[in-house]
Amino acid sequence: DKSKMAAMLLLLCSTVLFVASTLGVLVLPEVAPRGFNTFDSYPGLNETTVLDLADAMKAQLKDGGYDILTLDGGWSAGKMKLPNGTIVGGEILDKYGRPIPDPARFPHGMKWLSDQVHQRGLKLGLWTLRGVHMEALQRNTPILGTTYTVDSPGFVDTEPVGGGKNGSCLWAHSYLGVNKSHPAAQAFYDSRISLFEEWDIDFIKADCMMCAPCYTDEMNMFTSAVKNSNHTFILSYSPGGGNTPTDGQWVAENQIGTMYRITTDFHGGWYGWGGLQQQIFIVGNFTKAGLHGNNGTFPDNDMIPLNERWWGTDSTLEMRDRGQTIMTLDIISHSPLMFAGTLPADETTLAYLTNKVALDVHTYGKNIQVVDYQGNCSCHGGVTSCTIPHVDSSSNITGSVNGSCFAIWSIDVTSGDSDIGPYKAIAVFNMGESSGTATVNKESLDLAGDGTVIDIWSGKEIATNWPIQVTLRPHATAFYKLEN
């Protein structure tokens, strides 16, 4: 009868939906991912260290949404025996030329480690590098699912493709680029992803991919391999130096990855290439282009390098100010929050990482705006490397200046929950070399009433009148919640 027919159709539709849900999924979240990365603080780690980190994450960070534990470069590095019996250091590869964990440091294997991390309520991530390793070429390893080997004619790129010889990375010459036109090229990347699937990996950091010029052919193959797998992955592309908002628009429109770096490696410094001042300008350009969270993709400011030395007795006032500026920028710009300090985290670092109001801004904030630049903000270097010249002992730039330059950002916060919003948050960054005062007007923020001003990091109410006068030391930041 009709009721039985409807029930059967409902069951069939549910089955189809279930099957579709088990196919490869590239995670495109509403909130930027949060987690921990081992690169800065834990080189050469082993499975015991990884589990110690997982325990610390569960205890300190998981409740704040930091649930991805990523092993960065080095997990597949180990010792190999050559045919003549000589032991040398190198990349550990399987019979298909794919990186696998060093058995000396990960004796139980990566699937066991993944299971252990999952039991703690966390996700496991792995770093990997674009291309095929030269050791695989020397061994002439087969490409899984094909009749080809990696040394077959035309498989390896013959052109630099923006990097080193044969499409290699300028900083990692042992991996060579894969030529998209080769009939086994996609199968090679499919096999790389299938291994991560076997290990039940949740997060992939694919390096030497997202840079200017981008390796778009291999990015497309890598993303296709993720989407055509039988697994769910959060996909991160690096390293980011030279990327423009146009590159970000390409990622967002085509849903190439969950997150993508927009700056070169960041280690917490202020000046020059890869410095925080430059990063504020670059992130501002992506903000103006509306790319934060666009189509489920997120520009990535790189890892958070904070630890106890930023606040301890050996630190300086400027360093403490700079540490707060790092956190403020990453929160208000909706960057993925990938902590790279030490675990367990010290009290001050942990307070920044888990500040509830700041995480509410990161979770529920919308309509991010670069409201204004005030002061001497003339910069050199163009859209991907803009920095303000400064006078120091090494400066030889004609017309170098010292002064204050303020960037003023705003964001609207609302969750539909009466406990969270609606309210507006603002950040004021002093990007210059002198103390100074920025002026924040209600009109520029589209505010009607005066309201209450709360310092997000300290939780204290700020006694103020409009317009707000914000006085800051060089490299310092104010981060305020404006309650109407």
Q: Roughly what percent helix?
A: 25-40%
Largest sheet: 9 strands, parallel
Structural class: alpha/beta
Number of strands: 21
Strand content: 15-25%
pLDDT averaged over residues: 89
Radius of gyration: 24 Å
Shape: globular
Distance between the termini: 60 Å
**Count of DSSP-assigned helices:** 12
Residue windows where pLDDT falls under 50 for at least 5 positions: 2-22, 391-401
Describe this structure in words.
The chain is an alpha/beta fold and 484 residues long. Helix content is 28%, strand content 22%. Strands 1, 2, 3, 6, 9, 10, 11, 12 and 13 form a 9-stranded parallel beta sheet that branches. Strands 14-15-16-21-18-19 form a 6-stranded antiparallel beta sheet. Strands 4-5 form a two-stranded antiparallel sheet. The longest helix is centred in the first third of the chain and has 21 residues.
Offer a quick outline of the entry.
With 484 residues, the protein is an alpha/beta fold. It has helices at residues 2-22, 47-60, 110-119, 134-139, 185-198, 216-227, 245-254, 276-288, 317-332, 347-354, 356-364, 442-445, and strands at 25-26, 34-37, 68-71, 77-81, 87-91, 123-129, 132-133, 175-176, 203-210, 232-239, 259-261, 298-300, 337-339, 365-375, 405-413, 423-430, 436-440, 452-455, 461-462, 468-472, 477-483.
